[in-house]
Structure formats: C-alpha cells, structure tokens
Amino acid sequence: MDVHVVDHPLAALRLTTMRAAETDSGTFRASLHELTTLLVYEAMRGIAAEKYPISTPVAETTGTRLANPPLLVPVLRAGLGMADAAHAILPEASMGFVGLARDEKTHEPRAYMESLPDDLTGRHVVVLDPMLATGGSLVACCEMIASRGCTDIDVICVLAAPEGVERLRASGLVPRMTTASIDEGLNEEAFIVPGLGDAGDRQFGAYRRF
Ligand SMILES: O=P(O)(O)OC[C@H]1O[C@H](OP(=O)(O)OP(=O)(O)O)[C@H](O)[C@@H]1O
Ligand SMILES: O=c1cc[nH]c(=O)[nH]1
Ligand SMILES: [Mg+2]
C-alpha cells in the first residue's frame, strides 16, 4: 500500500483548526470541507486521464477528461462531511454510501448501511472517512467494495493511527491511501492521540445510536 501524507501548510492550518478542542461545530465542518478539497486534489494526481479533440473559439486543440470517473464512498457519519467537497472537485464521480458505527466497548464496527452498486469490476473507488484508528471500519468498508469486484481503491482520511495504517496494509485491499497526518497512536479507548476527538460527534453532535 502506497501511503501519502500531504505535507502542505494550508492542509496543516485546517488540521490545526480541527484538532483544537475549542473549535465549534460549524468551523470544524468548514475546515473538514476545505481540507478534503486539498486531500482529494493530492490523492487524484495519478488518476487516469485521456486526451480528446476539442475546439476553442479560436482553434482546434486537445482536451483532457477522466478515463474512468470514480465512485466516491463516504463512510457515515463522519465521512459525510467530506462528500460534498470531494464531489465538487470530482463532478464526474458517482457516489455510494456505507454506514458504520464503532461499538464503544469492543471498538468493532457495526454496519447499518451498504448502498453500493452490485458490480464494481473495473471501477475506481475513493473511500472517504476522516479517521483511521484501529482500521476496523475502513477494512470493513473496503471488504464490502472488494467483494463487488473492485481492486482499485483509494482511501482518503484526515488522520491515521499507525495501527490503522498497518491493518489496512495487511488487508491487501487498498493500493493507495492519502492522509494529512499519521499521529502517535491510540489511547485505551482506541481514540487517535493527539487526534481531534470523535469526528462524527464534532460535526453532528454526540448521541447514542445503538
Ligand atoms: O478505525 P476504527 O477504529 O474503526 O475507527 C474509525 C471509525 O470511527 C469513526 O466512526 P464512528 O464509529 O465514530 O461513527 P460516526 O462516524 O457515526 O461517529 C470514524 O469516522 C471511522 O469510521
Ligand atoms: O480518534 C478517533 C477514533 C475513532 N473515531 C473517531 O472519530 N476518532
Ligand atoms: Mg463517531
């Protein structure tokens, strides 16, 4: 798995705002939106593009278009905050949805939504989730995608723990991941340290779902 850590001052600024405990929910969402644009821009540097003939008002020339527009898959809830920004910079993309919530005690993901095309053979899928902690959620999501025939998966997250990166790598399902930071590790509640807290709660509010 190719791991790309985006090292850019503008990404670091947004990440700083998201990390700070005093940042309010609206500002957190705005920073996540802006950071997602930067992460997707970097992650898509190698996306397959093809040339085709176009006309400007002045002359014939060559244009560029995506050879295989991707399927975006935000992981609910927290990945929802990345969906609009990713779709804005990749307007040709379509979108599927996966819903996962981590059990507070076992930290195992529980799936409550799997809204994906039946056949993903030959498709390029871009998975969006701000947090890669133990890796259980993203591996579960990528297993859903791979079971539909997809072998070309990009994972884009804001923060990753080394434990999660290794688990995703060991799954053998993901050729590439992009993140703004690989943090120190996990605490006893499997939260990323220093991290930013619960990315879903900080966007949408804290409440018990199961
Ligand atoms: O790598 P893991 O240990 O699996 O943890 C990461 C997962 O935890 C968060 O979701 P959460 O379960 O809190 O659901 P939410 O987005 O609805 O808050 C996050 O958005 C990831 O999906
Ligand atoms: O630090 C963490 C770990 C899992 N999920 C989050 O939202 N934050
Ligand atoms: Mg959460």
Automatic annotation (TrEMBL):
Family matches, as InterPro entries: PRTase-like, PRTase_dom, UPRT, UPRTase/APRTase
Signal peptide feature range: none
EC number, UniProt record: 2.4.2.9
Keywords linked to the UniProt accession: Allosteric enzyme, Glycosyltransferase, GTP-binding, Nucleotide-binding, Transferase
Cofactor(s) needed for function: Mg(2+)
Biological process (GO), any one: UMP salvage
Assigned protein family: Belongs to the UPRTase family.
Catalytic activity field: UMP + diphosphate = 5-phospho-alpha-D-ribose 1-diphosphate + uracil
Domain Phosphoribosyltransferase: 5-205
GO MF entry, a single one: uracil phosphoribosyltransferase activity
Xref: Pfam families: UPRTase (PF14681)
Name the record gives this protein: Uracil phosphoribosyltransferase
Pathway(s) annotated for this protein in UniProt: Pyrimidine metabolism; UMP biosynthesis via salvage pathway; UMP from uracil: step 1/1
Function: Catalyzes the conversion of uracil and 5-phospho-alpha-D-ribose 1-diphosphate (PRPP) to UMP and diphosphate.
Gene Ontology cellular component terms for the protein in this record: cytoplasm
CDD domains per record: PRTases_typeI
